[in-house]
Every structure is written in structure tokens, then in C-alpha cells.
Design a protein that fits this description.
2 domains, mainly alpha, two-stranded parallel sheet, 4 strands
Amino acid sequence: MNDITDENGRVSQDYLIEKLKNKINFFSEFSRLKKAIPKEWYVQLSEEKSVKTTINIKKENIISAGRVIDMDKLVNKDFYNIIKNKVFIKPIGIHFWTTYLDIQDFQNITDLYEFIFKILLENKLKIFRWKLLQFIIPTKSHLFKWKISTDRLCNVCKVEEDYDHFFMSCKYLDIFWNKINEMLKKVQFENNIRLQHLVFGYKIFDKEYFHLNYFLTILAFTIYKSYYVSEQKTKTIDVYLLFKNEFQRKMKENKLLGMNSLFNHILNKL
């Protein structure tokens, strides 16, 4: 009861909405709560001799879709309209990533969405980037949290397999990353690739870096793909060769992309 009553023991509409707006999926939680109430309770409450429990409720009207509605007459459709018309400042996936990467904020979400849904041509790359952005690419840490895996440890390193380990620091990827960094130095790209670049892109607001971000997308997708080809790194495969084949195939298939000097250099160095 403390979750829905204010300090005076009253159930206030404003106080209740203030509580609920921080919930990720309170519709599902509310539905599960209703289903958990035994049918016997409903029967007893409907009996005339039933002792009704009362609470001091502060009734207020609520505005939904331009209509003023009495709280007693509020229905599911009204809740839907309230949530639908609510503007959320930051998508939940962006919130998770800015917290995980310990960065202040990401201001170029519109540019990133445009790159994912308008620039990327292959649906599998769009789906991958969207899942990555939503923080739902399944690492062992996620699988353990979802009760699919019995532990959260990398099968190679025996440490927690979070996103940084999954994409960047796992020993299974050492040879791959060494070859990638060596190849990038040959094309005079001196910046070290970080997890932040794989998630949010490199200068995603600047269309001059479109080809580089396409390259980074294929690179991240290859790591994701290799995870399942190797059966969660229990089999030895050449991740760099997998990337090389994926990259060259994408460039041949997508002739409309055009080739800037960076991509020509990369293709020559592969």
C-alpha cells in the first residue's frame, strides 16, 4: 500500500501517476496482479455480509484525449490514450547505454535513426542495429538475467560476459581486433574503435562518415554472427575471415552505395 498512498494515507491520482510513470511495463504488471487475485475473494466481496475494507480516496478528474473523465469511469482505453500521448524525453535503450558507457547524453538520436532505417539497406543489419540500440543483444549476462543460462560467464575467459566483453575485450576476439586495427592504420584511420562507436556510430551527425559507419555496422554484426556460428565461442572459427567475406559481399551487392577513398583502401587491404 505504501507504493500507492501518499504520506497522509490517501490514494491521489497525481501521486499514483507519479509512481507509475517510472515503470517500464506497468500495464503488464497490473494485468498480472489482477490475475493473481483468487476468485474466492471476488465471491466473498460480492456477498452482502462481506466486511468491506475502505480507504480514504482523494477523487480527482483526469483529462484524456481532450475529455475530462471521472476517475470512477476510467477504462483501459483512457489509460492507452494517456500513455500514447505522453512524450518521453529519452528512449529507454538510450538511457541504458548512456548509463552503461558512462557518458552524459547522446544528442544525435534523430541522425542515428536516419542512418539505421534509411541508409542501411539490408534488413538484417537494420534489425541488428536496432536490437543493439535497445540493449537486447543476448550476451551471457542477459541470458542469465532472463533465466535462459545457468551462469553469466564467458565460455572462454570465465568472466562476466557483458557488452564490453562481448564486442571488445574477449580473448576470443584478440586476433580479430589486432587485424582490424592494423588494417585501419594502413588506411590512415588513427582513432581506436570503441564500443560507443559500434552503438552510436562515429560522428553519426556528419554524412561524410556514412561509409565508415556502414563499415562499423558490418564489423559489429560480424562479431554478433560469429558468436552463434561458434556456438557461443565453444568452436574455433576465423572471425576476421568471416568479417572479410561479409564486408566484400556487402560491397559487391550494394553498388549503389558508391565507394569513397576510405572504402577503396579498406577493400585493397583486406
